[in-house]
Design goal:
Shape: globular
Strand content: 5-15%
Number of helices: 15
Order of helices and strands: HEHEHEHEHEHEHEHEHHEHHEHEHEHE
Number of strands: 13
Structural class: alpha/beta
Strand order of the largest sheet: 7-6-5-8-9
Distance between the termini: 31 Å
Length: 420
């Protein structure tokens, strides 16, 4: 899938990757840094829609199913709000309401949901890799809302988005992740995401929950078991709750013992730099990993994370369920009639939302400009002569000037046919 920005061209657009080619979001591991940054730019555009009473119609007529087979409040609600803010219909299914309790397989459940005309499935499941598996067998979008102790990609994305919002960048930041690293899918996804964006990650907590063997999986991280050392020079500390539901043995004597050694209270928060922030993915166990005076204090960005999570998940749903077509049809998409016909066909037959592009020149022959203004009114979101490119410098200059009048994105293949 390919998606270009729907907004006006940015001054630095040529230096950025403005495409998204993924049907699914099943993990941070398969995302590149340009893809993460592309998603952030899309989330930026959705922030104004978070105001009460605001919304968009980008997914109007589409249906998203939340298939949550593990308990959830924040993530499920955030995905529901995100889909509704985009104009989609939302159906939520939990474990007790699904046929899985009757012995049906996950694949059969998902394929039955797909057969009902659904456009995307957001799934939380206890088995690692379950979302990736569904994405491989379904032709609709699958978004991972947490799969066992494996990954929680949208949480990591919203955390990094919040850091970017606070500091203007993620590159070079020092981030300490404190708590139950061993059993945390949030920790795994954040390590991957923050490292790809150029942050320096420190893992901290008791040795039983932050074992030295984590360096084998994540050689780029620093592991520290002394809390003061972990906090003293970080830009952000990300607190994690104790994952009782995933632990099979006792990894520390008691919650009281954990709090006495690693709980973040006001005294220990004073070890942080003045500008450092406190983060938490929720749910918070007040009085265990963090005291209320810190969770509710001026350093805390916990509620900012919650708010940003809606914009980030809107971006994920939008990007994964939208396709931009190239104007390679016969006849070429260089006139209103052809563009309208393409839109009718896509509206009738496509499983996802399809946005058309038009040709930059008539017949994409590179000789005369196509009617860009009327094509924009007909619904094109960008113009391009695809792989042939425009070989005449004067025509290309005029095309760029004319397209700018209509805020049309120009997708150009930088090829010179005179070179061999």
């Amino acid at each position: 899938m390919v998606l270009t920005s729907l907004g006006p061209p940015e001054p630095h657009r040529m230096a950025q990757q403005d495409t998204w080619t993924k049907k699914d979001l099943t993990g941070i591991e398969e995302l590149s840094r340009p893809e993460i940054e592309r998603l952030f730019r899309q989330a930026d555009q959705f922030l104004p829609a978070l105001a009460p009473g605001k919304g968009l119609d980008l997914m109007k007529g589409r249906t998203v199913v939340n298939l949550f087979l593990e308990p959830s409040t924040r993530t499920r609600t955030a995905f529901e709000i995100s889909a509704k803010k985009l104009g989609a219909e939302v159906v939520s299914i939990n474990t007790t309401a699904s046929s899985l309790v009757k012995g049906e397989t996950l694949r059969d459940t998902a394929e039955n949901i797909r057969a009902m005309g659904v456009d995307a499935i957001v799934m939380r499941h206890s088995s690692a890799g379950s979302a990736r598996y569904l994405g491989s067998v379904l032709d609709i979008s699958v978004v991972n809302a947490g799969d066992g102790a494996h990954e929680h990609p949208t949480q990591a994305l919203l955390d990094a988005f919040t850091l970017r919002q606070r500091f203007g960048k993620v590159e070079g930041l020092k981030v300490t992740i404190l708590g139950d690293i061993l059993f945390s899918r949030v920790a795994r996804s954040n390590i991957l995401c923050l490292s790809k964006l150029g942050a320096q990650v420190t893992l901290a907590g008791p040795a039983t929950l932050v074992p030295a063997t984590l360096k084998e999986a994540f050689p780029q991280v620093r592991i520290v078991h002394d809390l003061k050392e972990a906090l003293k020079d970080c830009d952000a500390v990300m607190l994690l709750r104790i994952q009782h539901e995933r632990q099979t043995t006792t990894h520390f004597p008691s919650l009281g013992e954990y709090t006495s050694q690693f709980g973040l209270n006001a005294e220990r928060a004073a070890w942080l730099k003045p500008e450092a922030i406190v983060m938490h993915p929720g749910p918070i166990n007040r009085g265990v990993e963090v005291e209320s005076e810190v969770a509710d204090g001026p350093r805390s960005v916990i509620l900012e994370q919650v708010r940003n999570g809606v914009a980030v998940r809107m971006a994920v749903l939008h990007l994964c369920t939208t396709v931009v077509t190239m104007p390679d049809s016969l006849p070429a998409a260089d006139n209103v009639g052809t563009i309208q016909l393409l839109r009718e066909i896509c509206s009738r037959d496509a499983a996802v939302r399809v946005l058309p592009t038009g040709t930059l020149t008539k017949g994409h022959e590179g000789k005369a400009l196509a009617p860009l203004g009327t094509m924009k009114k007909a619904g094109v979101v960008a113009v391009t002569d695809t792989t042939s490119g425009v070989q005449n410098n004067e025509i290309m200059r005029r095309a760029l000037e004319y397209a700018a009048m209509f805020d049309l994105v120009v997708l150009d293949h930088c090829q010179d046919s005179s070179m061999t």
